[in-house]
Design goal:
binds farnesyl diphosphate; alpha/beta; Undecaprenyl pyrophosphate synthetase
């Protein structure tokens, strides 16, 4: 499916989150090294962002580096960080031309200095753009984020800035790194794995999941449109029964 004729443009998810998985296996299957797979992954990121903008998705969150990824061989970690710095500086002009605002979530202070600087620079230079927000999850893990939230809220409680009654679903959301971002309606994972891998655990409570049996470098416009089509053909009940949904509609 590569045209938009089957897509209801009034029912496109506002926020799509993606676990980009399979760069290494893609590289292996093409007789290349893992870093080559990651650089092909950047091409897929570019096409995905373009398609998201075309579909008028407002937030696109990409799991680019997890806290667990530090355990990979040093050469690969360094290669990924260099690729990030290079991609950010290469893409700033294009992001500005296409109305892309960049954000980042995760323990950013744990990234190499050079990465932090290029991220800050790209975030600053794109901050007034309004068409779409690209959120890069870097040195991110949901358990880290939830732990930080618990520390902050319990400290506020001890300092008597809040009482137990103030601890609500909304308060918790406001203390996560995604506080200004709506929860994703759609979560996509490539590579055939059917796991969430410590990604946005709180935020995906009601997300629809689409798992694709292709490696990330093979993900593009056609696959993105296909995933949105799949999403639009599901009934999102949020704990209600089908009849109630149909009445609401
Ligand atoms: C998963 O493939 C991919 C990653 C851990 C990194 C994703 C990074 C990119 C696409 C490039 C950099 C991104 C940006 C936004 C500039 P894998 O290595 O886990 O693949 P495997 O499971 O087959 O080994």
């Amino acid at each position: 499916m590569s045209d938009l004729s089957h897509i209801d443009l009034n029912n496109v998810p506002e926020h799509v989150a993606i676990i980009m998985d399979g760069n290494g296996r893609w590289a292996k299957s093409h007789g290349e090294d893992r870093l080559f797979g990651h650089s092909k992954g950047v091409d897929a990121v570019r096409e995905t962002l373009k398609t998201a903008t075309e579909l008028k998705v407002k937030y696109l969150t990409l799991y680019a580096f997890s806290t667990e990824n530090w355990n990979r061989p040093q050469k690969e970690v360094e290669g990924l960080m260099n690729l990030l710095v290079l991609s950010l500086s290469n893409e700033i002009d294009e992001m500005n031309q296409n109305g892309v605002r960049l954000k980042a979530i995760g323990n950013l202070k744990g990234l190499p200095e050079e990465c932090q600087e290029s991220l800050e620079d790209a975030i600053e230079k794109t901050k007034t753009n309004k068409d779409i927000t690209l959120v890069l999850a870097l040195n991110y893990s949901s358990k880290w984020e939830i732990t930080e939230m618990v520390k902050t809220i319990s400290n506020d409680l001890v300092q008597k800035e809040i009482t137990e009654k103030d601890i609500t679903d909304e308060l918790i959301s406001q203390h996560l790194t995604t506080k200004e971002i709506p929860d994703p309606e759609l979560l996509i994972r490539t590579s055939g794995e059917r796991r969430v891998s410590n990604f946005l655990l709180w935020q995906i409570a009601y997300s629809e999941f689409v798992f694709l049996d292709i490696f990330w470098p093979d993900f593009g416009r056609k696959q993105f449109i296909g995933a949105v089509y799949d999403y639009q053909n599901r009934e999102r009940r949020f704990g209600l029964v089908s009849e109630q949904i149909n009445i609401i509609e």
